[in-house]
Amino acid sequence: MGYTIDIDTGGTFTDGFIVFDGEIKTVKVATTQHDLTLCFLECIRAGARAFGITTEDLLYNTDVVRFSSTIGTNTIIQRDGSKIGLIVTSGTEDLFAGNAGSENSPLVQENMVIGIDESTSFSGTLETAPDAERVLQAAQMLIDRGARCLVVALDHADSNPANEQAVRRIIKTEYPRDYLGSAPVFLASDISTRPGLQQRVNTAVINAYIHAKLARLLYKAGEDLRQREYRRTLFIAHNNGAVARVANTRAINTYNSGPAAGLLGAGDIGKTYGINNIISTDMGGTSFDIAYVSEGEPSYALEPDIEGFTCNLPMFSIRALGTGGGSIAVVSDGAVKVGPQSAGALPGPAAFNLGGRQPTVTDANLVLGVLDADFFLGGDMPLHLDKARSVINECIAEPLGLSLERAAWLIKQQVDQDLGTAIKETMTNFKDGAEPVIVAYGGAGGLHACDIAAASGIRKIIITPFSAVFSAYSSSLMNVGHLYYRRIDSPFDTTLDTEKLQLAIADMRREAERDMHGEGFLDADLHFTLQLFIHDADKDREIKLDTIIDFYQHEELFADLIRQAENAVYTHDNGSRCTLSSVACMVKASIPGYQAATLKKTDSDPATAIKSHRKLFDGENSVEVPVYDRHRLGCGNALTGPALVESDQSTLLLSPNWNMTIDQFNNSILMET
To answer: Are 126 and 162 in contact (CB under 8 A)?
Structure first.
């Protein structure tokens, strides 16, 4: 087997996880926000250097490249996506995806929304077909106003997309694809067939808004690989836990794909230890992402919020807080406030010496002694202590009349308390009495893990040796897959329209097989999961139920499938009035990925891994603590805080009253005493 390369771009750093024949190299490079293909390629170059080979030799011998990016997220935040023309049903023009916040410009300008006369009933019966002349007038008007793409989102097209498809056909007849002036036409029904007109409009608009920029960059990334001898597929990470080639990727599927991969990896760690309740925390340079696994199931949003817009395309649920290593600290009303503003990668923290003039969390950790100025990223990126001391003194210490060290400690304390409170809020998703374990990762995750956990009341943390590049590591566990949806809208009881459900499943199976054949897989390679979305009328909520289905080995399992779902619903809801609103089919096929090895217990004394001692300010005094080399710690080694554990990519602060043990999986298990 050849190399596998997994790359994840964050707001500050781009991480790489490269594996060959059991040997692992992890790399970090600065994210180039103006063009993410540059840091993507630089990350691969760094991986090649780590293996001591050329970039071309690495790529020629690579079996799989998987890429998760922040392109979609950045495009929405920066409001630099495509100018959209939106065609809707007359009378629904006010449902366009406008301004999600007063400080942001809308995704669709008010004069770029036009209604047309057409109608489809709730049940999907066509009542009024769109008039071709009116459709062309609307399209031409929007194009004349500067639309670079058109979105068609008609009422009840989720039940029957015929009118949306007719609108696209009319437009494409007048503006064929091979014309230079042809504008892409996106249908809401192609993106989601789930109910909710407002949510469908938002989903379709967001997909179209980020499509052009994403397509341009991802195809460029693929071409950059081909020019450097890569002969296989570039796979793009999706927010449903799978990857697919660029040609089979919708733009909205890539939103939050890196954090989604991280949640998948945290869940995999839980399975390794038989732990069903986990909180995953990802602290990078820009944000702190929280998600969870409850009773073995990852957090899932049926109507996710995408940068302020409610959508109806389900995806892993991840809460992002504006607190990371680059978060800016200020004095507000006589107290320290941290974030959500971030210095990012450029200018970055003052300690980066790239022009940053405001104090950040990274600057505070450097002043406190948590970070080593000469060993940041293994020494590849030296930090400037004098710059960090200067901005914290000027912006925090002097205004509050505090010592420099005390001011830096207040910054860190505020971060730990804020994030500990956020984790407490997340704990309401677990059953009473269930005590979750934190899986902490991200470049800054180890710096704060113990104190955040203590603030939240959680007593156990797991940190992998790949925590600094955890989303990239986690994407190495992702296989090729696609997800399909169909509307059902039938009572979920003895009157269930089983024929409609069977037809929907059969239709999704055909579509899945076609797409996976295009990905290069045979029927025997495919694994299917059905997701049933059941609306509970009594509690006015929707439930997602997952069940494995193998079309190729069990031909008569339909009754068993229904029985499983019925039992699950009635167990949870005591026979509530339920409707099967929609059904989804996930198909996956395996591709090469990381396989963890176990370690033998070491006989070495952990004291032999101490490489130095460093003074650490604890809020009152400077205390000298040992600094351990993470690479020299082996299975069975145990440490007691306070201590620092450094690798070439991350630092772990083991706080007082915490112990740490390295286990057989080379993971750090932290326990509060």
So the answer is: yes
Distances, alpha carbon 338 to alpha carbons 68, 129, 419, 421, in Å: 28, 55, 11, 14
- Is the same domain home to 277 and 373? no
Domain with 409 in it: 327-414
Q: How far, in Å, CA of 651 to CA of 648, rounded?
A: 8
Tens-digit pLDDT profile for residues 345-363 = 778 899 999 999 999 999 9
pTM for the full predicted model: 0.89
Backbone angles phi, psi at 437, to 5 degrees: -110, 140
CA–CA distance, 360 with 408 (Å, rounded to integer)? 9
**Quick check: is 44 in a domain?**
yes
* Domain contains 37: yes
Residue 158 sits at the vertex; the CA angle it makes with 157 and 164, to the nearest 5 degrees, is 30
User: What is the C-alpha to C-alpha distance for residues 72 and 307, in angstroms, rounded to an integer?
Assistant: 11
For residue 631, the surrounding DSSP H or E stretch is none
The verdict on 302 and 423 lying in the same domain is: yes
Q: Write out pLDDT tens, residues 262-314.
A: 999 999 999 999 999 999 999 988 889 999 999 888 998 889 988 888 998 99
Q: Looking at the domain assignment, is residue 301 inside a domain? A: yes
Q: How many domains does the chain have?
A: 5
* Of the candidates 97, 10, 37, the residue with the CA atom closest to the CA atom of residue 246: 37
Instruction: Report yes or no on 191 lying in a domain.
Output: no
